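subagent[fold] <- orchestrator: predict structure for attached chain, return tokens only, no commentary.
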Amino acid sequence: EVKLMESGGGSVQAGGSLRLSCTASGFTFFDSDMGWYHQAPGSKCELASTIAIDGSTYYADSKKGRFTISQDNAKTTMYLQMDSLKPEDTGVYYCAAIPGGDCYAGTRGQGTQVTVSS
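subagent[fold] -> orchestrator:
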């Protein structure tokens, strides 16, 4: 059974940092591109960042220069280092297979809450 589990969310003040982790079981990132989705309160699901099997990365314009996506060598844990956090970064972050998952369904974790206060 494929499972993804996020951790590392929390509450920080604007300008602070958090590091999200996504751990996979029954699955490795050798099998799929992976990504982080962000769902802000009352907003649609946004693709925040992706990392391909070949290691190439993508960042949404709103996250570029502040977020860094990475994976461990075993390709069972993915990270999202979030620096210079802004209140608009508040929301639930989901790790997901790309394609195959998003905020709502598919191969994704249960989500982790990030709250950034001004």
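orchestrator: received. Logging for downstream: The chain has a mean pLDDT of 95. The longest strand covers residues 91-101.
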